[in-house]
């Protein structure tokens, strides 16, 4: 049986994003996020209810400062005690799994979506998606970009302005463009 574009997208295969099913799902997410981003600041419970319906997994302890943007929502899995500052963007064409006790600074972007390097398939509308995984107790500094297929290990700190193109191990401070490990986190950091 032939796979749908959505099935190809989630499987990490090349797919066409402009088909009816994916366009309708992105439109639904945009409508939900329009409501989310335009609620009065005091309407925290109402905002969180929108995200609980949109995301695949949340707990009761999460807070995302508006504005927030994502492609679909159903590929987002939040751990417990999650906080994201203003202007978080998650292009969740593939699963984005975020552990417990994660903090994300302002203007951070998580991009699971990518496009072929060669112009012919790119111009023809082909794209791909690779999952992003962020471990427990991670802090991601503002203006960071995390690219498709990246895993960030638990207890790690990503410095502001980083562009994360490869996996980052547990228990380190990493920063830069491209992001690289600067040092291990030790008891002296307490």
TrEMBL record:
Family of the protein in this entry: Belongs to the transferase hexapeptide repeat family.
Domain Maltose/galactoside acetyltransferase: 6-60
Signal peptide coordinates: none
Pfam family, one: Hexapep
EC id: 2.3.1.-
Key word tRNA-binding present: no
A GO molecular function held by the record: galactoside O-acetyltransferase activity
Protein name per Swiss-Prot or TrEMBL: Acetyltransferase
Keyword tags: Acyltransferase, Repeat, Transferase
Gene3D superfamilies to which the protein is assigned, alphabetical: Hexapeptide repeat proteins
Cited SMART domains: Mac (SM01266)
């Amino acid at each position: 049986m032939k796979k749908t574009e959505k099935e190809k997208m989630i499987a990490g295969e090349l797919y066409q994003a402009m088909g009816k099913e994916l366009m309708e799902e992105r439109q639904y997410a945009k409508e939900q996020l329009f409501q989310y981003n335009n609620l009065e600041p005091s309407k925290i419970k109402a905002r969180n209810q929108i995200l609980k319906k949109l995301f695949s997994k949340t707990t009761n302890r999460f807070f995302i400062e508006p504005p927030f943007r994502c492609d679909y929502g159903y590929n987002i899995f939040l751990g417990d005690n999650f906080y994201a500052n203003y202007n978080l963007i998650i292009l969740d064409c593939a699963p984005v799994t975020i552990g417990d006790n994660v903090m994300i600074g302002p203007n951070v972007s998580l991009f699971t979506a990518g496009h072929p390097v060669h112009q012919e398939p790119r111009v023809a509308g082909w794209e791909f998606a690779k999952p992003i995984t962020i471990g427990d107790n991670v802090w991601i500094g503002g203006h960071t970009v995390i690219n498709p297929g990246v895993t960030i290990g638990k207890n790690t700190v990503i410095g502001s302005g980083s562009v994360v193109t490869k996996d980052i191990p547990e228990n380190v401070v990493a920063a830069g463009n491209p992001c690289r490990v600067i040092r291990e986190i030790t008891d002296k950091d307490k």
